[in-house]
Amino acid sequence: MSELDKANVVQEERVEKAPRKRGCVGHCLKFWWAYLLAIVLIVVIVVPVVLLVAIPKIAQSKLDEAELTLDGLIVSNTQTENVTIALNTTIRTDGSVHATIEAFLGDMYLEDKEPHVSFATLQFPETTADAFQTVNISQFLPIENLQALTDFNTWLLANESFRVTVKGDTYVRVKGIARRYPVTFKKTLTLAGLQTFKGTYVTDTKIALPSTGPVFTGTAHIPNRSVVTFELGNATFYNYLLGQDVGEVYLDNVILRPGNDNQFFLNSTIQQNPVISALQEKPYCDTTKGVIPFQLRGKTVFNHGQPLPYFADALGATNQTIDLDVGGTLFNSTGLKFNCSST
Ligand SMILES: *[C@@H]1O[C@H](CO)[C@@H](O)[C@H](O)[C@H]1NC(C)=O
Ligand SMILES: *[C@@H]1O[C@H](CO)[C@@H](O)[C@H](O)[C@H]1NC(C)=O
Ligand SMILES: *[C@@H]1O[C@H](CO)[C@@H](O)[C@H](O)[C@H]1NC(C)=O
Ligand SMILES: *[C@@H]1O[C@H](CO)[C@@H](O)[C@H](O)[C@H]1NC(C)=O
Ligand SMILES: *[C@@H]1O[C@H](CO)[C@@H](O)[C@H](O)[C@H]1NC(C)=O
Ligand SMILES: *[C@@H]1O[C@H](CO)[C@@H](O)[C@H](O)[C@H]1NC(C)=O
Ligand SMILES: *[C@@H]1O[C@H](CO)[C@@H](O)[C@H](O)[C@H]1NC(C)=O
Ligand SMILES: *[C@@H]1O[C@H](CO)[C@@H](O)[C@H](O)[C@H]1NC(C)=O
Ligand SMILES: *[C@@H]1O[C@H](CO)[C@@H](O)[C@H](O)[C@H]1NC(C)=O
Ligand SMILES: CC(=O)N[C@H]1CO[C@H](CO)[C@@H](O)[C@@H]1O
User: Fold this and answer.
1) Is the CB of 280 under 6 A from ligand 4?
2) How far apart are CA 315 and CA 60, in angstroms?
3) What would the mean pLDDT of 275-286 be, rounded to a whole number?
4) Domains of the chain by range and CATH?
């Protein structure tokens, strides 16, 4: 590019710039109403869009990202028509938003059972969006849907793990903004189930032989796999031996707890003949050395005289196998020893 050309370019630029400035002033003065209109439009449309659309969206997505964990669940004062329910929960967020989530009613239901029917409605207190906070709830709960509560107990009892959702409509207040924004609190928790008390064993077994029939007693050790504490009371079970109903098993004053070796006195009536014939059958007469598997299935649950169908029917939905050393107990208690029958 020659010197002259460069000068021309500079010249051209100058020539072009000057009228633009003048034009703007003129333009601005001439179209001041257009600029005013633009500012008004920003105030009237953009600000409300931020306030009404963007913030609620952010509030909802921050709430959706928050994590809820259940640290403890206690069901106590269990009566036929009501219970006291207590939950200790932790809510974790990224802590980036200064907001308050208003108190709300949260419905709890089994996530994997359709249709979704609430088994408990809990009053969740006002919370903040802090990075870490514990929310503990304790409330009296009238049983509004017996079937839903029974289903929850059944799943808790039978499954290795299962999912529960807490859902409620509430409002979020963001610091510095007067408006409250509607949001939906919806969290799905995965809870450990009791696996039909798999691993229960009975120690200190004894057999008494009163005229009314054999009475088998012992100490039941029930594993605690879940975070739940349940006040059951007095539970009665059907007792099956090789598919045959042979008596009843009683567990008194049962309060199931986590973080505790759940030990209960076990008392049962068992019919003599089916047990004696089992003791003479293979594999119980040789391989298992008198240890026989029994199936227990819930029959009734009474707490201080009140029937608790939501526990009884849950315990009645599945059979739980426990191995009892009947042969050894009988030998220790009575000196009787049975051999394999020849037939
Ligand atoms: C909640 O935590 C408190 C304090 O550790 C404890 O006393 C209470 O039993 C817990 N409740 C539940 C439902 O886990
Ligand atoms: C709870 O239920 C029992 C019956 O199961 C009833 O007698 C009692 O009055 C109920 N308690 C309340 C506070 O409603
Ligand atoms: C809730 O219970 C936990 C124990 O699980 C306890 O550490 C915490 O202080 C309790 N929080 C409130 C707000 O009571
Ligand atoms: C939980 O247990 C119930 C009852 O036994 C069963 O119907 C259901 O499919 C199980 N659900 C899961 C998620 O394991
Ligand atoms: C429990 O076992 C008994 C005896 O084997 C059987 O009749 C019954 O159908 C079983 N019940 C369930 C729910 O599996
Ligand atoms: C065990 O059960 C039998 C039969 O119901 C009953 O007679 C007995 O009193 C019970 N024993 C104890 C210690 O509960
Ligand atoms: C369980 O039954 C026994 C004997 O009938 C009774 O004394 C006790 O109060 C009952 N316990 C509960 C929690 O109902
Ligand atoms: C029977 O007695 C022996 C010796 O005291 C003991 O080792 C065993 O555990 C007892 N068996 C039962 C089932 O009580
Ligand atoms: C089982 O066999 C032993 C030794 O063989 C014998 O002493 C005992 O009497 C037998 N028991 C019965 C119930 O027949
Ligand atoms: C399976 C389970 O959670 N077991 C717990 C039961 O409670 C004891 C404390 O008594 C814990 O050590 C176990 O981990």
Assistant:
1) no
2) 40
3) 92
4) 66-192 (2.60.40), 196-334 (2.60.40)
